[in-house]
Amino acid sequence: MNIQLVPLHYVYLAFIVLIVAVMVRRRDTTIICVAGVMTIGLLATETLSGAVSGIFNSFVYAAKELLSTIFIISIIVAMSRVLIRTGINEVMVAPLTRFIRSPQVAYWGIGLIMMTVSLFFWPSPAVALVGAVLLPVAVRVGLPPIGAAIAMNLFGHGIALSGDYIIQGAPKLTADAAGLPVTSVMTASIPLVLVMGVVSTVTAFWMLRNEMKTGVSAPVRHPVPGDSLNGLTSPSEALPGAEIAPIEQRQAIPIRLQKAFALIIPLLFAVDVILMFVLQLQGGDATALIGGTAVLILIAVTLAAHRHEGPEETTNYLIEGFQFGFKVFGPVIPIAAFFYLGDAAITELFSHPLPDGSHGIVNDLGVALAGLVPLNDTVGAITMTLTGAVTGMDGSGFSGISLVGSIASMFAGTADSAPVLTALGQVAAIWVGGGTLIPWALIPAAAICGVSPFELARRNLKPVLLGLTVTTIVAIFLI
C-alpha cells in the first residue's frame, strides 16, 4: 500500500526527533510541542490566525481527552488527604504490622502493600499512606530505610504505575496515541509488567541482602527537617500532593469511627473490583466507579471528622486534590496536544484533508517507514524500550508516553504486535521516569524514608536496567 507523504508528515516527524533530542538533554519540551502545533497549523490552514488559534484548540482537545484521568487522580488525592489527616490510614494499615517480623518480610510486605494501595490511590499518595505507618516498623526489625524506599519505589512507582490497571491513566494515554483500545494495551502489558516487576524487585532484594550482610546498609534512619520520632511527619514541600499532616494539622476523630472507616473503605473498593469483573466494566466505566466511590468516602469521612464545617472542608479537600491533579498534568497537556495531532485531532482541529487513503499522520509514517526499512520484531522492541526510557528522563513518566504510543504504531508490523510494542514503551517510560531512576521524581519516597534521592536512584539503577533488558527480550517473543 503506497501512501503519499506531504510536508505535513515530514514536519511532524522532524518535531518528534527534536522532542526526543530535547528530552535526552533533560530539558522541558513544552515550547517545542507548542511550536510543533503552530507549524502544523500553519501548514494545514495556510493562515497565521488559524495556526495561532490551533495552539489553544489543541490544548482544549488534549484536556478533553485527559479530563477523566485528571479528575480521578485529583479525587483520589483529595480522599487520601482526609484519610491522612484523620489518622484512618494508620488504622487501615496497622493490622498488617504484626506480621512484619524480619527485614525480608518488611521488604516484601511494604512492597506488596504499596503496590496494592498504589493501584487504587496512585503512588504519590500511597507513599504517605503506607510509609508513615510501616517505615518505623520496618526499621525496628532491621530493614534499612533505603530498603524501604527501594521497595516503595519499585512496587509502587514501578509495578503499580506502569500497569495502572485500576485508574487506567497510563494505558489510556498510550492507547489513544497509538490508536488502540485501552483494553488491548492493558492485556498486552500484563506479562511485561510481571516480568519487569519480578526481575527488578528480586534483583534489588538480592543486592540489598548482600549489603546488609556486609554492613554496608545499616538500619539507621537519617532524620529530615520536621521529622518526628514516631515517623508521622515529614516536610510537606517534599511530598507534593501527598504530604503527611503535621500533628497540629491533624483532625481528631473518635477511635470507633477510625476503625469503622478503616474497615468500610477497603471493603468498598473490593466491591468495586468485584463489580468490574461481574459487570465487565473497563476503561472510563471502571474509572468512574472508582472515582464515584472515592467522592462518597471523601464526603462521609469529612462530615464525620469536621461535623458542622464538613461541607466547607469537603470543598477544601477537593480544591487541594484538583490543585495537585492539574499541577501534575500541566506539563502533559501541551505534549499530548502535539501528539494527538498524529491521529484524529489533525482533521478535527484544522479540517485539513490528508492525502487519499491516509489513516493519520503517524499511521502514514509507519506505512512509509515499513516500505523503506526492513523492520523486524527485535528492532521494534529495542526501539520502543529505548524510546520509552528516553521519554522518561524528564522525571514525569507520563509526559512522554503519548510519544511512545505514536512511535509504537509506526513500528508495529502487524495488528497483534502493536499492543505489545505500545505496552513495552509504556513500561519503559514509567519505570524510568515515574519514580524509580530520575532523582527529582524520587523525592516523595526519599523524603518519607529520610534518604537521599540520588542514593535511591543509584540503588535502583542496576535492578531496573536488568528488568528492562529481560522484559524487552520477553516482548520480542510475544510479538
TrEMBL record:
The keyword Transmembrane applies. This is Transporter. Keywords: Membrane, Transmembrane, Transmembrane helix. It comes from Paenibacillus xylanilyticus. The chain crosses the membrane at residues 6-24, 31-60, 66-84, 105-121, 188-208, 260-280, 286-305, 317-341, 428-449, 461-478.
